[in-house]
Design goal:
Helix content: 25-40%
Number of domains: 2
Number of strands: 19
CATH topology of the largest domain: FAD/NAD(P)-binding domain
Largest sheet: 7 strands, mixed
CATH class of the largest domain: Alpha Beta
CATH superfamily of the largest domain: FAD/NAD(P)-binding domain
Strand content: 15-25%
């Protein structure tokens, strides 16, 4: 049911669970618990629909590598960033949970089997279509992978009726978290603030912070400062190891036998390195995206090749430009960013939002391993085409020099905010344990992709909803 925060706080009930944030993680978790008969308080900082007043609280500063403006990279109202989500889904690979040879810091303290029981329910709430299995390509260290691609599910539309009808779920919009009170290793209350400066205190047996991959870090940093370090008692990694999936155009390619890569049946094909290639090349995971060009664009690309290599160009011109003949592709990639402590979310002291809280300052830093990963994958595809004489790749200049430059414009990243409150075996290496519980607090949990220790190359939404449902079952068991 919809409720008013001031009225709810004045009544001072003890909720079973207070969920802070009504995006993909928060909604999935809150609804699952409410269906089990738990008294859930769902607090959303935004409103039911988009407002400039709420969205302005997401403004912030960016340092390091070029990145998307922070208020353009996420949405602050019911449904969260699923309101601009494209619907592209794929589970992480099993080896994404392990320590990769290129960086042992990619390991999770859980494996994919821990999330497997929640796949069907997560797929249902997100409208994920069946995803074909990966397929090997003879002679190529890259495998063909598949995604569920749209239409995107808007949780604002699919969940609104149940939230409004549920007697167990009290939904309060315009509830902006401003503090967490703690005593003896337990959160005793959450303090919320409205735009008039009013503060409201609510109690619950368990608390879950599910405000997104930037805001979870910002809110915990702020609450920890207000509590003089009593919320996160070992904060060395708080806000750090922040990640997105870097996105970039890598170049163009002529494919003489599209069927060899599956382009005969599709306008786009996705490739990713096998586990053996990850180990041999010492790279992280990467999704290469081959987008088929029109016949006109392919013809122009062949003419450019002819100027550089006349004999090869003239030979290619003899191949037909048809569905099963020669085609050009735009080669793009979205890849796994190396988890690194200098890539981080900070508080922008001196720059306060309308509620009086420091805004976020994102420092995004990619590494030499990030460059090596995407370059090696592109070169591996080019070598395969050349050896089989079925195509050629022309890489863009940023990949071919040794200055480790990345594009400063274009798509830049996937808006996939991960890390900052990473999951780990101990508080020296992360913020939450394998159950997403904040180290040092008995009843404070984090929901969402901010707990990811590493990212793989797959879009994070499906995985974060699986984690949220797993967390719901954990909390339900604790409340029994």
């Amino acid at each position: 049911m919809h409720d008013d925060l001031a009225r709810y706080a004045a009544a001072d009930p003890l909720a079973d669970v207070c969920v802070i944030g009504a995006g993909a993680a928060g909604l999935s978790l809150a609804l699952r618990l409410a269906r089990r008969g738990r008294h859930v308080l769902l607090c959303e900082g935004g409103e039911q629909d988009f407002t400039l007043r709420s969205q302005a609280l997401y403004e912030g500063a960016v340092a390091g590598d070029p990145y998307i403006p922070l208020d353009a990279a996420r949405l602050r109202y019911f449904g969260g960033s699923t309101n601009h989500w494209g619907g592209m889904c794929r589970p992480l690979d099993a080896y994404d949970f392990t320590a990769k040879p290129a960086d042992e810091g990619t390991a999770w303290p859980i494996d994919r089997d821990a999330l497997a029981p929640y796949y069907a329910d997560a797929a249902a709430i997100l409208g994920v279509s069946p995803i074909p299995p990966d397929a090997t390509i003879p002679g190529l260290a890259l495998k063909r992978v598949h995604f569920s691609i749209g239409p995107a599910t808007r949780l604002k539309e699919t969940c609104a009726d149940e939230v409004a009808r549920s007697p167990q779920l009290h939904y309060c919009p315009n509830a902006n978290l401003f503090g967490l009170e703690t005593r003896d290793g337990r959160i005793t209350a959450a303090v919320f603030k409205d735009y008039t400066g009013g503060e409201y205190r609510v109690r619950a047996r368990q608390f879950v912070l599910a405000c997104g991959g930037i805001e979870n870090s910002r809110l915990l940093l702020w609450c920890n400062r207000r509590s003089h370090g009593q919320v996160v008692k070992q904060p060395a990694t708080l806000g750090r190891y922040w990640m997105d999936h870097p996105h970039a155009t890598l170049g163009r390619a002529i494919i003489l036998e599209p069927a060899a890569l599956g382009l005969d049946a599709s306008q786009s094909v996705f490739l990713a390195p096998s586990p053996a290639m990850l180990a041999e090349h010492r790279i992280l995971n990467c999704g290469l995206r081959l987008h088929r060009m029109s016949d006109t664009e392919t013809g122009e690309l062949v003419e450019q090749l002819t100027l550089a290599a006349p004999r090869l160009g003239e030979w290619i011109k003899q191949r037909p430009l048809a569905a099963n003949g020669c085609c050009g592709v735009v080669l793009r990639a979205a890849w796994e960013q190396q988890p690194h402590p200098e890539s981080r979310v900070e508080l922008a002291d001196g720059d306060l939002d309308a509620l009086g809280m420091p805004r976020s300052r994102l420092v995004w830093r990619k590494t030499a391993l990030d460059h090596h990963t995407v370059r090696d994958c592109a070169l591996t595809l080019g070598d395969y085409l050349r050896r089989r004489d079925i195509g050629r790749v022309r890489l863009d200049p940023w990949l071919t020099d040794d200055t480790l430059q990345f594009p400063a414009d274009g798509e830049l990243a996937g808006r996939h905010h991960m890390g900052g409150t990473r999951m780990a075996e101990s508080p020296e290496h992360g913020v939450v344990d394998r159950d997403c519980r904040v180290f040092g607090q008995d009843n404070l949990y984090i929901g969402g992709s901010s707990v990811f220790p590493s990212s793989g190359h797959a879009n994070p939404t499906l995985t974060l909803v699986q984690l949220a449902m797993r967390l719901a079952d954990h909390l339900d068991a604790r409340l029994a």
